[in-house]
Structures are given as structure tokens and as C-alpha cells.
Design goal:
mainly alpha, two-stranded antiparallel sheet, elongated
């Protein structure tokens, strides 16, 4: 009956192999559906999202009222719809975060003024 058992190390190895296969398959499906650029965003080239304290997010947010060219607005609108579930604020956060060299965000600074 002992031949039906596997060691913990063998079990962990089998699980790791299964997870790797599933992740590779899932990434392949996502690339096919959404394109490589969007998958790269999901892989970490976007800033983190502030943790919540109660119902509100930690960190400071400011309202911004600006006027931009229609063509740029439409690109932003389409990108937000495609990549950020329509959240234009998140889309702008990502664009500005990349443009300014990926600085720490207000919630990451732990109250320090920079």
C-alpha cells in the first residue's frame, strides 16, 4: 500500500509543474485576446494600487480639470476602456507614473514630503 503514497517534496514539485503549465496557458490565452502590450502592463509596469483604510484609499488624490486635444482625449478614453475597465483616473496615474520615471506615490512615501 505504501506505493500509493508520494512524499511532500514530490507533491510540491507536481503542484509547481501544474501551476507553471496553467500560468503559461493562461498567459497565452490573454496574449491572444488582449495583445502583448496589455499583458506586459499586468506583469508589473503599472504602479500599485493604494491599500484601503476603511472605505477610503490611503494616500492623497487631487481633482484635475484640464483641456486637451480631442485626438489625445479619444486615445486616453480608448486606452482606459481597453486596459483599465474604463477608469480614466487609473489610466492617467499609469501614464504620468511612467512619464515621470516611476516615482513613489503618496501612499508609498509613508507621510514624507518629497
Amino acid at each position: 500500500m505504501a506505493e500509493n503514497f508520494i512524499t511532500r517534496a514530490e507533491l510540491e514539485e507536481r503542484i509547481a509543474e501544474s501551476e507553471a503549465k496553467m500560468l503559461a496557458w493562461f498567459k497565452e490565452m490573454l496574449v491572444g485576446a488582449f495583445g502583448q502590450a496589455n499583458i506586459d502592463d499586468a506583469a508589473g509596469d503599472v504602479p500599485g494600487i493604494a491599500p484601503k483604510k476603511g472605505k477610503a484609499f490611503i494616500g492623497e488624490k487631487f481633482d484635475l480639470r484640464v483641456r486637451v486635444d480631442r485626438a489625445l482625449y479619444m486615445k486616453l478614453f480608448e486606452d482606459a476602456a481597453r486596459n483599465y475597465t474604463g477608469n480614466m483616473s487609473r489610466c492617467l496615474d499609469v501614464a504620468l507614473w511612467r512619464y515621470y520615471g516611476r516615482p513613489k506615490l503618496s501612499w508609498e512615501k509613508e507621510g514624507k514630503n518629497e
